[in-house]
Design brief:
This protein is mostly helical. It has one domain. The protein has six helices and three strands; from the N terminus they run αβαβαααβα. The protein has a three-stranded antiparallel β-sheet with strand order 2-1-3. Helix 4 packs antiparallel against helix 5.
Amino acid sequence: MRTIGFRSNILFAIAAAFGVIASLGRPWYGPSLPSTDAQMEDLFGGIGRSLTEPHGTDGWTALHTADQLLAGLAVSTVVLLALTLVPALQRHVQPLARWCSLATVGVVLVKLADGPNTAAMSELRNGIFLALAASLILLASTWTVAAAPSRKRVPTKTYTPPPAPVYDPDATYGPQQF
């Protein structure tokens, strides 16, 4: 089974970084409905609203300064991954790209666990789940690129044929002839 190649993982990481930044334009938090006596219906209604509700506070508004941090980490991860294409820089840049992608996932997870405590932003919306999925793809692609062995430019060896055998007319070659 083939794995995705070095350059393909860089392209996946670029697409995932765009996904993280694009998810900031989607609603991350929204208001919850008043609770009723049917707790299970409230639970499943909240899950349905979190995945399908198109209205709410987008990530750029809700995250105040974490939105810029999240976008900066995603862009810096892509820049560092692009620098891994330079063989002289690859070994030095790979750990930095790995840490930036891990920090991107960390910021999304912190905002998933500890959102704003206002009534207008008490429920999760689909933007945060899109950011989580895109940041996990960014992390997986970055770790694959960062685990790649160092690519050194090795000069190609030219083929030199072995010397021709020396023919001795008095010697016998092959089986005897009768």
